[in-house]
């Protein structure tokens, strides 16, 4: 299994970014997928998840600003982020739910400047 995240970058507060996660080797359509983020010195936290049936759930801190989506034909999962805040700065990762430790990819850095 390989998960490859991209789309991060440096953006000003209030800006938007769209993250993408390409998956391979995974029975994608039957897995719940999620985006996670981690700040140095802190535990990785779940940001948004999308079940195999397409239901979504979000961390309170991103509700109304982030949208997770998936394309089962392309084995891709996305995270559209709007109204970004400096506290959204982190490395963002995708993984299934529940996570599998050896599935973690390199992540993509999101930096939001104030």
Task: Report on this structure.
By secondary structure, the protein is an all-beta fold. Helix content is 0%, strand content 52%. The chain contains no helices and 10 strands. The protein has strands spanning 2-6, 9-12, 17-24, 32-38, 45-50, 56-58, 66-71, 76-81, 90-97, 108-113. The strands form 2 sheets. Strands 2-10-9-4-5-6 form a 6-stranded mixed beta sheet, with no helix packed on it. Strands 1-3-8-7 form a 4-stranded antiparallel beta sheet, with no helix packed on it. A hairpin with a 5-residue loop joins β5 and β6 (56-58). The N and C termini lie far apart (37 Å). The mean pLDDT is 96.
- The assembly state of the depicted protein chains is single chain
Number of helices: 0
Question: Could you list the spans in which at least 5 consecutive residues all have pLDDT below 50?
Answer: none
The number of strands is 10
Mean pLDDT: 96
Name some characteristics of this structure.
114 residues, mainly beta, 4-stranded antiparallel sheet, 10 strands
Question: What is the secondary structure topology, with strand pairs?
Answer:
Layout: E1 2-6, E2 9-12, E3 17-24, E4 32-38, E5 45-50, E6 56-58, E7 66-71, E8 76-81, E9 90-97, E10 108-113
Parallel strand pairs: 2-10
Antiparallel strand pairs: 1-3, 3-8, 4-5, 4-9, 5-6, 7-8, 9-10
Structure in a nutshell:
With 114 residues, this protein is an all-beta fold.
């Amino acid at each position: 299994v390989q998960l490859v995240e991209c789309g991060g970058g440096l953006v000003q507060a209030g800006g938007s970014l769209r993250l993408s996660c390409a998956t391979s080797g995974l029975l994608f359509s039957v897995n719940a997928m999620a985006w996670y983020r981690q700040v140095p010195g802190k535990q990785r936290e779940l940001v948004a998840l999308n079940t195999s049936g397409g239901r979504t759930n979000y961390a309170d801190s991103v509700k109304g600003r982030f949208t997770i989506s998936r394309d089962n034909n392309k084995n891709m999962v996305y995270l559209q982020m709007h109204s970004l805040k400096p506290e959204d700065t982190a490395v963002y990762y995708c993984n299934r739910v529940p996570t599998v430790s050896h599935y973690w990819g390199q992540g993509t850095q999101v930096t939001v400047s104030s």
